[in-house]
Amino acid sequence: MSSRQDKSDDEALAGARERIDTLDAQIQALIAERAGVALDVARIKTARQRTDFYRPEREADVLRRVAERNEGPLDDATITRLMREVMSACLALESPLKVAYLGPEGTYTQAAVYKHFGHSVRAMPLPAIDEIFREVEAGNADFGVVPVENSTEGVVSHTLDQLVGSSLQICGEVALAVHHHLLSKSVDLTGVKRVVAHAQSLAQCRKWLDRRLPGVVREAVSSNGEAARRVAGENQAAAIAGRAASEFYELPMLASNIEDEPNNTTRFLVLGKQKVPATGDDMTSILVAIRNQPGMLHRLLTPGAEAGVDLTRIESRPSRRQAWDYNFFIDLEGHIDEPRVRQVLDAIESQAAMLKVLGAYPRAVDTSST
After folding, report:
1. Judging by DSSP bridges, how do beta strands 265-272 and 282-290 pair with one another?
2. Each residue of 268-318: pLDDT tens digit?
3. Residue ranges of the Prephenate dehydratase domain (predicted)?
């Protein structure tokens, strides 16, 4: 009985493996066919002297339909990630993208690049946010990815300040669920005498550090990738960074998920020169300067409520024009080409001293961990 059952199980297992081999061959053939069509697209666009090989609205629409078709057992995030890599590889055959990001290697911004564009892009690490803007403006990079806000610690002010004078458009957004890990070559926590990280990451892990490493020196640096790079050759220092930095710098994880808030999420902006058509699920970001008059901010926000357009975020930053004068950064649901959104923008512009559209772009759909 047992022998017969074992034989039956072995035959079933062999049949399943044969079926997997057949499916793998079919998947590979379909990917090759898709890549061939991508090359045809590249030839057509080149013949017409078109350079829009990457179209954010097209990518967003394809991935949205991938999630809608998904019936399991893989979840939407997994199947979308797999399709993103196929699309990335096919796009690289047409025209490899150069994407600038806040480096060095191993940062969360690099993870955001790969989440949005896939791993077949040429990711270009730069030491500062203003350099990312300059490289894209100069045409040395096709796109740039910069952090703009964290669910725990708020906005990245340097990114907002750079948007004021930049000619670049926001072409997309990436939402990344961020998990911080303590990386070190020290054998245990007692050997850690210094913790290095970006200032926001130190703040996001403050309670854990107070509890587990009280009195240990905390050093703020430009990025968590830089923190990992610095401590890679030390035995008494630790970096707060992501899993990618652990792998890249060969730093063991002394502790995982040390962030104080488990739902810690960072939002990144994708910057480029192109305006993105509507997808049906979009955001529009604007910069507004208001006249210093009583009730002006209320009048600025009223058109959105009257038109049923949700203003999802509003942030103020000193304008540097004069003391106590501010710029307001506002995110609205919808695309600038939608009549109701255009109506709201026209109403705001009539009240404001200045209105600048920073971009209209597909909304980020999901978050994934790093």
Report:
1. unpaired
2. 999 999 999 999 999 999 999 877 777 777 777 788 888 889 888 888 887
3. 98-273
